[in-house]
Amino acid sequence: MSGVANKRVSNTALIDVHQQKIANGESFFEEQSLPISILDDFKSAASETEYEISANTRRVYLSSFRIFGEYCQQHKLNTLPADPRSVIAFIGQQKEIINPKSGARLSKQTLTTRLAAIRFYHIQAGFHSPTEHPLVLRVMRGLSRNKHRVTSDYDQQPIMYDELELLLQTIDKQSQALTKARDKAIIQLGFQGGFRRSELAEIRVNHVNFLRNKLKVRLAFSKSNQQGHKEWKDLPESEEFSALSSVKHWLEISKITQGHLFRSLSRDGQQLRPYQLASHSHADNGETNNNSGFLRGDDIYQIIKKYCEKAGLSSEFYGAHSLRSGCVTQLHENDKDHLYIMARTGHTDPRSLRHYLKPKD
User: What's the predicted TM-score (pTM) here?
Assistant: First the structure.
């Protein structure tokens, strides 16, 4: 099962053109035979498919597909390719799982992610995805309209000025200067810039510019900018809880001059851990990588969750996404228009803001 799940196009595995043709339902011209002279060129191009989805998405898909594989193995079903009826049975089993902490069933979003993983690995292997079967689609439509299922769906509440002040007061109680400086910079930058936790983790020192009255942060990549187009966030110093001074203080006290902006610290919080960045990482496909000394998105999530709990904000309702949600809601409260908010958060469709905007008092 693991061998199948890890089957993907990389430097050591070529795209099977014939299988892709079947999967796409299309017919392409094929040479009778290809010369060995183009093999390296073909491998080089094929290796780029490693980046077709993010490393985090790949990890989530791998985890979900393993769960599906274990179910198929338990019932002696074929995993890849899978029968649509096996997928439907899997949905039936998953939708009844109860989270012991919340007492609720898995959300529709979780089940949709499971299906997305099944679809991804089928297409990778050149098979038509069973998730596209009409009966599977009908089951999922019915599931989304079932009002009787108690699920773990909930919206993270926005962190706004009042909650942000509580978090910063909690951080100020830290005795370690480095920890205090780093965590205040994370919280304030995450809030003012409306960053996702993965975006915060990817910010490098050379992405940050201190101007006369604002902090300018470049985003190399984001969820809505997978192609690496130029994207900047202008964060005015005049806004309440501006991140400019906290980010500048973090850089001064940590003496970081290059590489990732937010670093991991020693257990006592007295010094930075050794920083190492490999030229090419394969962490997302399970291979050992040599990257160390900087925070990942999950680390930032844990930091924010920790301070929410210490400040008396329930971690059930507040999390890393609360900073981004709070940025949108607070700017709306400050009478900023949709275009201004979208420029801050990177949203490309104003309809996406409806989920975040809350009624004003």
Answer: 0.62
